[in-house]
């Protein structure tokens, strides 16, 4: 990880780079992987000599492939840039368990590398280094099969090899360990990049700078000043179109065990010795090891039902979802970090689908003032909004302007869309793929991190499934099931801000108005 230049490290070097996207015909590839690669191409952040090979079982012509990988590009993208990107892309069709197909893929890689070297033979190159990146935009059921084929038929020991794996990484602690052992038997840990795309989001990546570059934040970042922390993920839509897939996992496996727990580990970690990836991941793992397994009594579960007017369907109205499903689409849990910095501070993580808004926010509430000079004060809060609009705000008490001596809650507000109007914040996938190109593991999940994350959640998941815990119903578009607002107050000591106070990031149009 670098905070001092170095963002375009991959583009500075003439590294011969081959990126193989497995599952190139799938939704993930067309919606995320290829648009992210195109963004890096537009910003000239891909190495000069890069070739992108899509691999999947689907038979496609070159035109069909081009249409598919550009289907989620923006209409405003310049045609010449799209054409230039497609020139470095190609498609190879093959099965995921046939040696000969992967041998053909290796031959194609070798042919491309030879052609690129020959084409530039008269030019001076900065480096003869070669990098092969294998991006598995695939379901976990074929990770090991494809990984085995890569190692046996494609892997080139004379160059740098990097394997990118998408979540979910297992179903519980046991399955995760088996998957890690299988993948670890094929590739070294420093060759493996487990993507959690929330680690690529701008505000999540900003947490380290916010904490460790500002003395006034780190000075109060302990149990002595912080009362509770809430990490909230809300989506305003249900599982339409993927209910059958979602039912295998539920909201805890889909969002909380990975995305929200990773964010928690960054917020809670101590200062690392350096910004090197292993020092950062050591500190994250250290925090995870100190989190106690979640108890059922510290958990609130919900499942959305259709709206009263019938305009929105319920979770079980999806034909792909079993009618007797008890899979939660909403969950709220209290975690406890048993170390000297955080002992006694409740951490509330909550996530849900079909709620009232789209939002991902980290809310750090400080303790009450230890004096009665100004009684009945609301609490200070530091609020980091990760999405949809990045912002940092501090809820603070001020005197009302004018002749009044009344106190009021206000905020110090850094809204990114207001402060950085001319800066386009990159997609998380583009950020993470750039990290892979640069060989930076900081924002990827290490095997011991993954193991600890499953240790925290597996007992709860097994209890829910064994005891057939039925989630509480909540209406599509609501705030969640009964008790959603009372839960953090009763379980974590959260003190709601006065009802008359309301804050949201200001629009760019009103940014200059006083």
From TrEMBL:
Q: Where is the Glucose-6-phosphate dehydrogenase NAD-binding domain?
A: 20-206
Task: Give the UniProt entry's GO cellular component terms.
Answer: cytosol
Q: In what pathway does it function?
A: Carbohydrate degradation; pentose phosphate pathway; D-ribulose 5-phosphate from D-glucose 6-phosphate (oxidative stage): step 1/3
Query: What's the EC number here?
Result: 1.1.1.49
Q: Which GO terms describe its molecular function?
A: glucose-6-phosphate dehydrogenase activity; NADP binding
A GO BP entry is: pentose-phosphate shunt, oxidative branch
Query: What protein family does this chain belong to?
Result: Belongs to the glucose-6-phosphate dehydrogenase family.
Q: What does this protein do?
A: Catalyzes the rate-limiting step of the oxidative pentose-phosphate pathway, which represents a route for the dissimilation of carbohydrates besides glycolysis.
- What name goes with this protein? Glucose-6-phosphate 1-dehydrogenase
Q: Coding gene?
A: ZWF1_1
């Amino acid at each position: 990880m670098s905070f001092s230049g170095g963002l375009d490290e991959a583009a500075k070097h003439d590294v011969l780079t081959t990126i193989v996207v497995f599952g190139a015909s799938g939704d993930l590839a067309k919606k995320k992987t290829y648009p992210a690669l195109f963004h890096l191409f537009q910003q000239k952040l891909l190495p000069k000599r890069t070739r992108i090979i899509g691999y999947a079982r689907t038979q496609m012509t070159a035109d069909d492939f081009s249409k598919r990988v550009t289907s989620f590009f923006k209409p405003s993208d310049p045609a010449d840039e799209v054409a230039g990107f497609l020139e470095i892309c190609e498609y190879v069709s093959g099965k995921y368990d046939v040696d000969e197909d992967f041998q053909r893929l290796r031959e194609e890689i070798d042919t491309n590398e030879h052609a690129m070297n020959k084409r530039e033979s008269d030019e001076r190159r900065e480096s003869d280094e070669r990098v092969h990146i294998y991006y598995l935009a695939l379901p976990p059921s074929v990770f090991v099969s494809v990984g085995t084929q890569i190692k046996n038929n494609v892997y080139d020991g004379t160059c740098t090899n990097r394997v990118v794996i998408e979540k979910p990484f297992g179903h519980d602690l046991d399955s995760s360990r088996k998957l890690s052992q299988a993948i670890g038997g094929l590739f070294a840990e420093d060759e493996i990049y487990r993507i959690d795309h929330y680690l690529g989001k701008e505000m999540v990546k900003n947490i380290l700078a916010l904490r460790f570059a500002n003395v006034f934040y780190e000075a109060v970042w302990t149990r002595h000043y912080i009362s509770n922390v809430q990490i909230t993920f809300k989506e305003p839509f249900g599982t339409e179109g993927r209910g059958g897939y979602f039912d295998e996992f539920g909201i805890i496996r889909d969002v909380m065990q990975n995305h929200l727990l990773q964010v928690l580990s960054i917020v809670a970690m101590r200062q690392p010795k350096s910004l090197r990836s292993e020092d950062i991941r050591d500190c994250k793992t250290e925090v995870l090891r100190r989190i106690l397994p979640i108890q059922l009594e510290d958990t609130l579960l919900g499942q959305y039902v259709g709206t009263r007017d019938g305009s929105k369907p319920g979770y079980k109205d999806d034909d792909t979802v079993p009618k007797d499903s008890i899979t939660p689409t909403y969950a709220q849990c209290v975690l406890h970090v048993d170390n000297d910095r955080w002992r006694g501070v409740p951490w509330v993580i909550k996530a849900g689908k079909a709620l009232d808004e789209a939002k991902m926010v980290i809310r750090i509430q400080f303790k009450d003032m230890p004096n009665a000079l100004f009684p009945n004060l609301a609490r200070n809060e530091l609020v980091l909004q990760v999405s949809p609009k990045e912002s940092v705000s501090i809820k603070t008490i001020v005197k009302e302007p004018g002749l009044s001596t009344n106190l009021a809650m206000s905020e110090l507000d850094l809204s990114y869309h207001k402060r950085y109007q001319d800066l386009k914040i990159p997609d998380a996938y583009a950020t993470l793929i750039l990290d892979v190109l640069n060989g930076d593991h900081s924002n990827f999940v290490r095997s011991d991190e993954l193991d600890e994350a499953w240790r925290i959640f597996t007992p709860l998941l097994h209890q829910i499934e064994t005891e057939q815990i039925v989630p509480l119903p909540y209406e599509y578009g609501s705030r969640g099931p009964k008790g959603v607002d009372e839960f953090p107050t009763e379980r974590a000591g959260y003190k709601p801000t006065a009802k008359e106070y309301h804050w949201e990031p200001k629009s760019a149009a009103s940014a200059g108005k006083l």
